[in-house]
Amino acid sequence: MPTEKSETLPFHRASPELAAPAADSLRTKYIWLAVYFFFNLALTIYNKAVLGHFPFPYVLTGIHALCGTIGCLIFYLKGHFTLTTLSERENITLFFFSLLYTINIAISNVSLNLVTVPFHQIVRAMTPFFTIIIYVIGFRKVYGVMTYVSLIPVVAGVGFATAGDYYFTAIGFFLTLLGAFLAALKTVVTNRVQTGRLKLSPLELLFRMSPLALLQTVIYAYFTGELQGVKTYVATDLTMSMFLKLLLNGAIAFGLNVVSFTANKKTGALTMTVAANVKQILTIVLAIIFFHLTVTPMNAIGIILTLGGGAWYAKVELEAKQQKPTVLRPKDDGVAPKI
After folding, report:
1. Residues 138-142: what's their mean pLDDT?
2. Looking at residue 218, what is its pLDDT?
3. Fewer CB near the terminus (10 Å): N or C of the chain?
4. Which residues of 29-58 are buried (b: 16+ CB within 10 A; e: fewer)?
5. What are the structural domain ranges in the chain?
6. Residue 166: phi, psi to the nearest 5?
7. Is 311 helix (H, G, I), strand (E, B) or coil?
8. Span 203-231, pLDDT tens digits
9. CA triplet 128, 36, 45: central angle to 5 degrees?
């Protein structure tokens, strides 16, 4: 007779042999990465435009979390996913996971005020290396030499592409470095929550995270004085056009979160951090095309290095997956295997 817990859990928490879906093809993974690039670039450009008229970054993050909550609720009511019965320990894990997301945003914004933008970008470009360190030390994962080598132009290219004034204070350097580590840790934990013991779907993970993120960003906005500024803005400057722009901004953020979680689950944390570096370069390329941004020869070299390094990394990962042997585990029927 099944236990009470097994009766309440949905099918995707069953044994891995029964619940594991078929392996995603490389083409599917690259498609998800391409969609991730599209949403990420769209939100980055749109955020810059919105913040020019609505200078409240933490409130804007709260709007993203609110739209995520509403969007996931709609999908839940339509039956697109079910809620997993979690233990008290698992709920606490998700709470700390939400704190990691909020702290990562806070550290990034605070450090940006203490260092120059070029220095901030080059340190954040080291996120793939922090990701490798977390996996090697925390999960004893082994990477091939070519994986390490292919990451060098990805990181160095961002440095060349953003070359400029590298001024920083001591506390600014520490916080920027901490922000890069937290960004890597957030990406790794996102992958583990979806592929480890919890095995939460992207929509369920976002549904559980969004209300917590909303509460935390509102608290932070209160202590930084943003809420008071928003009250004044709503009373004097908010128009229907701006309201619709904020709503569209939140809808794009919801789409990005779903795509980001899904791409992370299908491709892995290290690939996502490399993709984030390539996204920085693509943002610069778009700025050159649409905003006539002037670049130096060194900036151009950096763009080529990062894009080429990203393609090289993808090739290395593809070859590693093709060469990885398939291990067939014999069924344990109590009979010793023949030698």
Report:
1. 88
2. 92
3. C
4. beebbebbbebbbebeeebeebeeebebbb
5. 24-322
6. -100, 45
7. helix
8. 999 999 899 989 999 998 999 899 999 99
9. 95
Q: Provide the 10 A C-beta neighbour count for residue 329.
A: 6
Q: Which of 44-48, 110-114, 129-133, 335-339 has the highest mean pLDDT?
A: 129-133
Predicted model pTM: 0.75
pLDDT tens-digit readout, 28-70: 888 888 898 888 888 877 887 888 889 888 898 889 999 999 9
Distance CA(253)–CA(319), nearest Å, equals: 33
Asked if 130 and 184 count as a contact pair (C-beta separation under 8 A), the reply is: yes
What amino acid occupies position 304? I
Residue 101 tokens, joined:
């997301």
- Return the residue matching tokens 């079910």: 82
Q: Both ends of the chain: CA-CA distance in Å?
A: 39
**What are the tokens at 219?**
């608290």
Q: Which residue has the higher pLDDT, 106 or 330?
A: 106
Nearest to 271 by CA among 306, 313, 309: 313
Distances (CA, A) of 166 to 114, 120, 121, 162, 181: 11, 8, 10, 10, 20
Q: Residues 127, 183: contact at Cβ < 8 Å?
A: yes
- What pLDDT shows up at residue 161? 80
How many other C-beta atoms can be found within 10 angstroms of the C-beta atom of residue 133? 12
- Nearest CA to 68 out of 253, 307, 193 is that of 253
Packing angle between helix 269-291 and helix 170-195, nearest 10 degrees? 120
Give per-residue burial for 223-241: e unless 16+ CB within 10 Å, then b.
ebebbeebeebeeeeeeee
The full length of the chain comes to 339
The structure tokens listed for 312 are: 């090289």
% helix, strand, coil for the chain, step of 5? 75, 0, 25
Position 195 scores a pLDDT of 86
- 118 Cβ partners below 8 Å, 6+ apart? 162, 163, 164, 165, 166
CA distance linking residue 35 with residue 33, whole number of Å: 5
DSSP state of 168: B
β-partners of residue 168 are 115
